[in-house]
Amino acid sequence: MLKALSSSCFQGRLKLSARFPAAVVNVGEGRSPLLRVLGSLTSPRGGSPVFWRKAFFCSERDDGSEPPGEAKAEEESEATANVAAEGGGAEEADSKASSAIVSMNPRPEDYLSVIALPLPHRPLFPGFYMPIYVKDPKLLAALVENRKRSVAYAGAFLLKDEPEIDVNVASGETDKSVYDLKGKELFKRLHEVGTLAQITSIQGDQVVLIGHRRLRITEMVDEDPLTVKVDHLKEEAYNKDDDIIKATAFEVISTLRDVLKTSSLWRDHVQTYTQHIGDFNYPRLADFGAAISGANKLLCQQVLEELNVYKRLKLTLELVKKEMEISKIQESIAKAIEEKVSREQRRYLLTEQLKAIKKELGMEKDDKTALTAKFRERLEPNKDRCPPNVLQVIEEELAKLQMLEPVSSEFNVTRNYLDWLTSLPWGNYSTENFDVHRAQKILDEDHYGLSDVKERILEFIAVGKLRGASQGKIICLSGPPGVGKTSIGRSIARALDRKFYRFSVGGLADVAEIKGHRRTYIGAMPGKMVQCLKSVGTANPLVLIDEIDKLGRGHAGDPASALLELLDPEQNINFLDHYLDVPIDLSKVLFVCTANVTETIPNPLLDRMEVISLAGYITDEKMHIARDYLEKTIREACGIKPDQVEVTGTALLSLIENYCREAGVRNLQKHIEKIYRKIALQLVRRGLSNEPEVDSPKIDPQDSSSTSEEAVEIVGDDQIGKNIDASASSVQANEIVSEETEHATSHDAAVESSEVPEQVANKGTNNVGEAVSSDVDKVVIDVSNLVDFVGKPVFHAERIYDQTPVGVVMGLAWNAMGGSTLYIETTLVEQGEGKCALHLTGQLGDVMKESAQIAHTVARAILLEKEPENQFFANSKCHLHVPAGATPKEGPSAGCTMITSMLSLAMNKPVKKDLAMTGEVTLTGRILPIGGVKEKTIAARRSNVKTIIFPSANRRDFDELADNVKEGLDVHFVDNYIQILELAFESKDAK
Ligand code: ADP
Q1: Which of 293, 773, 893, 904 is catalytic?
Q2: Around Cβ 761, how many Cβ atoms within 10 Å?
Q3: Do 716 and 785 form a contact (C-beta atoms < 8 A)?
């Protein structure tokens, strides 16, 4: 019957060998004895606190068949073997435990009173080993003494739990209290039923017991050591063939087998008795099941106390069933974990394999290798020209890259750094073109006029040709907005065949913009210059630095000095960008700066610059620029063909004089763009509306008569028609009309012959005029319809007075926007003896206010000299005002204008017509030179000034002006105010 279990045990054992991980070493109290055995076997040598948990099984062939004496020799050897096993290792202990299975059978009458040994944790089942610790020296001595006297038996009784002691109390504490128990106290705590235990060995306080048969305590014999009288118990008689007992036993066996199948731990345990298992009878089977189960000690004690074999089997069955449930759960937990681990392992293995395969096939290089290869490849073309120190840094960084983890932040920093280092055009220069004729052609192609500027640029190129290099100078183009500074910069680059890069430093306050950030900062970037080199790809581009006069003030570091380092030919040969950290040679870069005024450019910078000023354009120049440059490019940009549009000269002139009076041409450009956009819309609309007219003539009358859209569209044409029909008032207009008529008539003929006659008829009925219908493809802009395209003039003449009244004089001013004219007016507030005072208005700055005070004093002195009897200043409160009061005004150059204005009032004489003047005056009446002669001259021309008075120190500036600027002007240069007096009031005298 029991062979079945035995065979399954063998199978399990064969598979097992060394599958247990070391992790199960420290098994806990609640585990099965099997676990405990394993735990103790694998625990480290010496003084193991879990030693008492060991339980070894030995077989007992037949109750009462052999005398204890026979077994003695074997007992001794087996006891030593056990101890040896303790120090020797798992395998050894295991085998010794098996070999310790001996036949022993003490006679009951020899052991009617035995020393009682308390078992704190589990009862000892017959046939099992159990090592215990005996802490009581007296008890230990008694046991040793007994052994010596061949009475190597004692009673082992499970201790009852102390009622107040929690079952969960730590084992250490329980042990301690157990060892303290003595005599009666101990007696009371012992379970009545225990086991006759053979003492197989005593090593120190460690005693190994083998259970033999059940005992029941009857009375206490001795207190210290506790000795008790016992009855030897026997199982109740039972029928071996009883079906119920059999069935229960089978169930126990099959459950044990199931547990063995699932729990590998049990299999190992079973190794110790597999050879004897066949000898088990039912009671022994029940004991075995209970002993190896992990059941709680009281349940085990119940099995021990049960003498009815059937009931004992039933109790055991319950315990092993429970064990099986636990083992099932354990199995499922193990399985789930194993699955998870293996899934992850599988994935890892597969990806590693994939990587290896890809590498093998050359499909993918590992990240770092690919990066390094990319950087090296990029560097290759420039390698010979690259400075050795830079090459060294690159090599070092590449080596560093290999050492870094790709996920680390430093890897990214190094990669970016290498990216910048390798993408710079080290030593890669484009060949320069010093062909002066070609340069002249390009400059003329791009810009009208500016002959002095062009000349300077050509000189510069010529020097470059002779020197073989054009660098070494910084050109600064200064002038009002829209005069073409930036576009000249671009033309120079084109003329020299250099790459062009532009950046603005207007309002720049952060030095890092120029010098770069240090690499340690997150998001660090190199400065503009390094970015420029990377973007242009050559080491000698033309760099245009815009708005250098509007450089901001840095809070950390001075952008001006950073810029100086960048621009100064002495320093920029080794320009050090904070990010790049290796010097770069910028000496071959040609720098061109632009500024509106040179006054605000930091002096050290200005010092190193070659300033070329562009003053602005006079009307005539603007006309040319508009006609030959702006119109052309804008027309092309709008996709309009030259024969589809015509802007007449008068329209352009009106545009320049009434709409775009500023020095530059950007506003003019905008206006022309506006006109062309509107023309484009007209052409497109016309094209669209023409089609239905041709296809379905019936709809046409409605269309042309009622739609307001159509009416708006053809306003231009309508008026052109009128222009053609009616003769215009001005001579200019007449000229243009004749031009237009020519166009119109020639076009008429073409249209009439080929295109839609109905259309002409329809338009005719609508009073639109023939010009419209016939001139479908051409839009003509003239003074009369200009307003439809650009609205009413926003800018009116700067001249308020045709002839300036007494006390009013025209001055000339100059600022970042160019030159302009301004009036200075003085009037009398009140008169009375000693009421000399001056009241100022017109948003005057401090310098201008002082200038007024000086003027007051000088005027008074001059009046005193010229008209000693005139007490005007002494007895008058005057008010000086500069119109356009919303515009702040500043500067000393209105001094002479103010004096003239005051004197005019004092002498009650208006100044000469069309006169303007400028110049700073000292208290002694000397005239000091001023800036912006050209701008002022141009502004004066715009205001139809005929006579200009300049300080004589400015004569040179004036002489340098182009003839067309100077043309028709009566210019006087003066040293002293007295000269102005003569010039200004001369007209009246003449009269
Ligand atoms: P700035 O840099 O001085 O403010 P830009 O260079 O931007 O002015 O010039 C504005 C526009 O005017 C550009 O389209 C430029 O081509 C045009 N322009 C300026 N001066 C001339 C000129 N002399 N001839 C032709 N076009 C000009």
Answers
A1: 893
A2: 14
A3: yes
The reply to whether 893 belongs to the active site is: yes
Position 758 confidence tier, pLDDT thresholds 50, 70, 90: very low
Nearest-atom number in ligand 1 for the CA of 489 is: 6
Q: Answer yes or no: is pLDDT of 28 > 50.
A: no
Q: Which residue has the tokens 């010229």?
A: 866
Terminal C-alpha separation, the chain: 156
Higher pLDDT, 719 or 676: 676
Rounded Cα gap, residues 95 and 556, in angstroms: 83
User: Per 3-state DSSP, what percentage of the chain is helix, strand, and coil (rounded to 5)?
Assistant: 55, 15, 30
Ligand 1 center from residue 482 Cα (angstroms): 5
The total number of residues written for the chain in this structure: 991
- Strand 818-831 with 808-815, pairing: antiparallel
Amino acid making up residue 195:
T
Atom index in ligand 1 nearest the CA of residue 450 equals 23
The CA distances from residue 282 to 125, 291, 313, in Å, are: 14, 14, 7
Q: pLDDT by residue (tens digit) across 411-464?
A: 889 989 999 999 999 888 888 888 899 999 999 999 998 888 899 889 888 888
Each as own residue / partner, the long-range contacts of residues 405-408 (CB below 8 Å, 24 or more positions apart, any chain) are 406/367, 406/368
Q: What are phi and psi of 272, to 5 degrees?
A: -70, -20
* Nearest residue (CA) to ligand 1, atom 15: 484
Mutate to test the pocket of ligand 1, among 485, 665, 669 (most ligand atoms within 8 A of CB): 665
- Model confidence pLDDT, tens digit, residues 901-958: 999 999 998 998 889 999 999 999 898 988 888 889 988 888 889 999 999 999 998 9
User: What is the pLDDT at residue 949?
Assistant: 93
3-class SS at 435?
Answer: coil
- Among 445, 666, 671, 672, say which to mutate for ligand 1: greatest number of ligand atoms within 8 Å of CB: 666
d(CA 685, CA 242): 116
DSSP state letters, 947-990: EEEEEGGGHHHHHTS-HHHHTT-EEEEESBHHHHHHHHSHHHHH
Three-state DSSP state, 114: strand
